[in-house]
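Weekly puzzle thread! Below is a chain. First person to post its structure in token form gets bragging rights.
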Amino acid sequence: GAAGAGGPGGGMPPAEVGVVTVASQSVALQSELPGRVSALRVAQVRARVSGVVLQRQFREGSEVKAGQVLYQLDSAPYRAAMESAQATVVKAQATLAQATAQVERNKPLAEANAISKQEFTTLVTTQRQAEADVGTAKAAAETARINLAYATITAPISGRIGQSSVTEGALVGAADTTALATIQQTASVYVNFTQSSTDVLRLRKAIASKQLRAAGDGSVPVRIVLEDGSELAKPGKLLFSDLTVDATSGQITLRAEVPNADGLLLPGQFVRVRLSQAELPSGILLPQQAVTRTNQGDTVLVVGEGGKPGPRPVKLGGNALNNQWVILDGLKEGDQVIVDGFQKMMVPGAPVKPVPWAPGAAPAGAAAAAASAPAAAASAAAK
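Winning reply:
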């Protein structure tokens, strides 16, 4: 027939396009920065006395508890030294007892002037020297006891212990430059990262001018993105921002603490850090596919009067949030922005039929085409 399927006169129906209706909302502005993981606490296991390693009492790479025995050194020389020091204490105490007895016996004689004062003074001085000898002997005995205890090397902190640098039979000492092993706590880890001082200044000025507001209650949540692009389920928290700008790079150092119960984060690992330091009170989010980015600027297509689409320049802010751009300027509430169906707009400026667009939905009109396909196939088979 002369009249096509589009209606009287054979005109084509308006192309069906998927649109989103602009609505403002509170938007957290995120920054994505490179960071490096470090252990919450690190302790090097070292020998505090010299000796031969008799036993290594842990498995490399295992979890150890604070105070757990790790190495046993040959303690025989230190046990002998402690016993000798204890014997010296007994001898000094015996000497003190004798000097004290002499002072007590001669004190009445000195009061009665039966002996010279010089003689009595000598006895008192001998007693005090004996008391000092007892103190010195006790200190030496305590030192010997401490050295004996140091022959048993224990874990200073709880955590995961790494590779042992010595084996049984090795001679170790307090002057060694290499640690016997290293213990790291990784149930929670630090993530150290840097941010440009220019970005920090711009952010503070925007908050001061009330273009932005500080995020939430002042705490800054931190999300960690792994090397494969996946994001950790549990967020961390920003601990501090350094007060000094690195003179060579113009960067400010920040640190976050991140829970790491599953052990996915390892000390020294590089990650990406996403943090929200401010909020846009009335922001607009658009799917990335709705924005056309060129060297001349960023634009979107907006359905205007009579269903005719037209370009609209927009201003984007920062990084994308969950595959959506933050629109700072160029749109107002109620605008219908085309997200899907660009390929159907064959004639520039021709009216379109806007339909609501949903993420993950089939392209506009695809469902109708799919529904008509069986009928078309059946007709062709009949012919």
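Puzzle host: Confirmed. Bonus trivia for everyone else. Helices lie at 76-111, 117-150, 197-208, 366-382.
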